[in-house]
Design a protein that fits this description.
By secondary structure, this protein is of the alpha+beta class. The chain is built from seven helices and ten strands.
Length: 248
């Protein structure tokens, strides 16, 4: 068992609280580690406070993802509800972990505080690429499958497209290269969303099929976002008569 000790004030005395955590989780590549690291690259942050505490945290609007991540980390930390900055914003959740080991290991893997615009795509072995990409996609990816009426035509047209978002073009360049070299993607392109608001890697029909095959192959421990998976499944069934079955 991996144990983390911390303290809280209770009746003016410090009472020890024992928190479980596998502090060696990021020291070795596994499929679970690759997914969590990919999700961290998208929707994670790391910080050091003035008292020398080291923390990493994950945040997302889908609580189920944090529940799965917490489980594979061997953690019993609380998942907290984050306050909405604006009334129209969706509720979001946060999992914060105090661990110098995590902070140092994630730093060695290429991540830093305030990483959003400077992060680079890390080295990921081929066996773990699908899990890393799925983790990043669940954090900062989206999939579109809708039917549109094309101008000057009577027929409706299905649009099947996937996108990855990042504040760092260098990260998306590395992701795009890895998907073409090892993930079965043939094309795709990167575009700037708007001035100083980030970049997007865009994949169309056939490359989205290749992406789905890469990401949903034998997923471990329910480490995926169900609502995105369902869109891929529907798209493949509708357009190609294919089934996207995930062995868990």
């Amino acid at each position: 068992m991996w144990i983390e000790y911390c303290s809280v004030t209770c009746y003016d005395k410090y009472m020890p609280i024992v928190k479980k955590l596998n502090h060696d989780f990021f020291k070795k590549w596994t499929r679970e580690m690759a997914y969590v690291l990919g999700f961290f690259a998208a929707d994670g942050s790391m910080m050091q406070n003035k008292r020398g505490g080291h923390f990493i945290e994950f945040h997302i609007t889908d609580r189920c993802v944090l529940v799965s991540i917490r489980k594979v980390l061997g953690s019993d930390h609380k998942i907290s509800l984050r306050k909405q900055k604006k009334k129209h914003h969706r509720l979001s959740y946060r999992l914060q972990l105090g661990s110098r080991e995590y902070f140092n290991d994630i730093s060695l893997l290429g991540f830093t505080p305030n990483k959003s615009k400077i992060v680079r795509f890390p080295f990921v072995e081929k066996d773990f690429l699908g899990d890393f990409v799925r983790g990043y996609f669940d954090g900062d990816g989206c999939v579109f499958f809708k039917r549109y009426k094309v101008k000057d035509r009577r027929k409706m047209r299905w649009v099947f497209q996937t996108r990855f978002t990042s504040g760092s073009k260098q990260f998306l360049d590395g992701l795009h290269f890895s998907l073409r070299e090892q993930g079965g993607v043939q094309r795709g392109f990167i575009l700037e969303k708007s001035k100083n608001s980030g970049w997007e890697l865009v994949l169309s029909h056939n490359d989205s099929v290749a992406l789905s095959t890469l990401m949903y192959n034998n997923v471990p421990h329910n480490l995926f976002l169900p609502r995105k998976y369902r869109i891929f499944k529907r798209a493949l069934r509708t357009l190609f008569g294919q089934k996207l079955e995930m062995r868990l």
